[in-house]
Amino acid sequence: MKFIDEAEIYVRAGDGGRGCISFRREKFVPRGGPNGGDGGKGGDIIIRTSHSRRTLLDLKYRKHHLARHGGHGEGSNRTGRNSPDVEIVVPVGTVVKDAGTGEVLADLILDGERFIVAKGGIGGRGNARFATPTNQAPRYAQGGIKGEERRLKLELKLLADVGIIGLPNVGKSSFIAKVSAAKPKISDYPFTTLAPNLGVVRYGELESFVIADIPGLIEGAHEGMGMGARFLRHIERTSVLLHILDISGEAPGGAWRDFELINRELSLFSPTLVEKPQIVAINKIDLPLTMERIKREIASFKEKGIKALPFSALTGEGIGNVIGEIVKKLHQTKIC
Ligand SMILES: Nc1nc2c(ncn2[C@@H]2O[C@H](COP(=O)(O)OP(=O)(O)OP(=O)(O)O)[C@@H](O)[C@H]2O)c(=O)[nH]1
Ligand SMILES: [Mg+2]
Predict the structure, then answer these.
(1) Is the four-CA dihedral 271, 170, 329, 108 of positive or negative sign?
(2) Is residue 336 predicted with pLDDT exceeding 60?
(3) Residues 228-257, mean pLDDT to the nearest whole number
(4) Is the CB of 8 under 6 A from ligand 1?
(5) What CATH number has the domain bearing residue 174?
(6) Cα 324 from Cα 330, distance rounded (Å)
(7) Using CA positions, which residue lies closest to atom 11 of ligand 1?
(8) Ligand 2 centroid – CA 275 distance (Å)
(9) Across residues 264-280, what is the average pLDDT?
(10) Contact predicate 218/226, CB 8 Å
(11) Measured between alpha carbons, how far is residue 306 from residues 111, 278, 302 in Å?
């Protein structure tokens, strides 16, 4: 289940400021010396990694990154200002390539790593610097060096942060389709999903996370029943599980029975999987039968100390709460 996130961006560092040509003018000093200051440095463009970013989504919307030019030098030996660097924040694991040649410029694997992708030009020297015993009044200064510019291709192998589990047909793929741009197959028969789907979910200004669904689980999955448990390894590295339940059908024992069944299969497959934080959400609240039963179900989960969130993947009702809870849990697990 490899899913490569990509973004192409254009970066341009700032040019260095011009050096200044100027001469001291003072009363009673007829021939003041040169006092043109140097130009300031243009800003660099820096790529920095942070665990707070999960995907390259925001860079698909912001493609141009320009740093400011350095200030020009001025008279009285005043140096032009250095311009601030511009930082582009990317997820840990991002590979930076030259978009033209495909050459790998950096493979950023540590949190907080910084890499200068385009250097700002240094400022030109002012005429004060060129004064020599034989030329005490130089009438020239340097221009600033141009800032580097580049087209970059950023690539990131996406790993799911959130895994969706549940019985077949509960609406796992419908959830992904509603909250991301992914277009998984959705149908009213069990085992519609034969291979995991990945979606990128955007929230807040710049944040996003990756969510994956897997084929539905049934009793005996750990022994190979249904699609079996072989897809569970795809969600072993996620931080949070979203457990979707459906109470619209005939379900003796209600949602709690389904909830326990899935958790039993999880623990038989892998003890670490069952210990991951789970968000419990009951789908299809747009259906009258679900609405009829929902209060009782939420109450019975509450008795066991579990918050069950009602939502509809069809109408979108309650989806915001589910996303909010996921984000909260991701923060708690220090992923976001
Ligand atoms: N009324 C209603 N139907 C829904 C809702 N969410 C999903 N469904 C329907 O439920 C059926 C199953 O949805 P899927 O998203 O394919 O379910 P799944 O859990 O991915 O199923 P498998 O991949 O087979 O495990 C489809 O017919 C969906 O249209 C909902 O909120 N309301
Ligand atoms: Mg599905």
Answers:
(1) positive
(2) no
(3) 83
(4) no
(5) 3.40.50.300
(6) 10
(7) 188
(8) 23
(9) 90
(10) yes
(11) 34, 10, 5
Mean pLDDT, residues 196-204: 86
Pair 193, 243 in one domain: yes
Protein residues with C-beta less than 5 angstroms from the ion ligand 2? 172-173, 192-193
- List CB contacts of 308: < 8 A, sequence separation 6 or more: 245, 255, 280, 281, 282, 297, 298, 301, 302
Contact 137, 23 (CB under 8 A): yes
Atom of ligand 1 lying closest to residue 216 CA:
25
Question: Is the CB of residue 82 less than 8 Å from the CB of residue 70?
Answer: yes
Six token digits for residue 205: 């200004």
For residue 286, give Cα distances in angstroms to 139, 178, 190, 246. 80, 15, 20, 12
Could you tell me if 135 and 29 lie in one domain? yes
Among candidate residues 108, 113, 1, 7, the one with its CA nearest the CA of residue 57 = 7
Query: Is-above-0.85 flag for pTM?
Result: no
Q: Examine the domain organization and report whether 119 and 225 are in the same domain.
A: no
Q: Let me know: does 208 contact 179? Beta carbons within 8 Å.
A: no
For the Cβ of 312 lying below 6 angstroms from any atom of ligand 1, the answer is yes
Indicate if 147 and 4 belong to the same structural domain. yes
241 strand-pairing partners: 163, 278
pLDDT score, position 29: 67
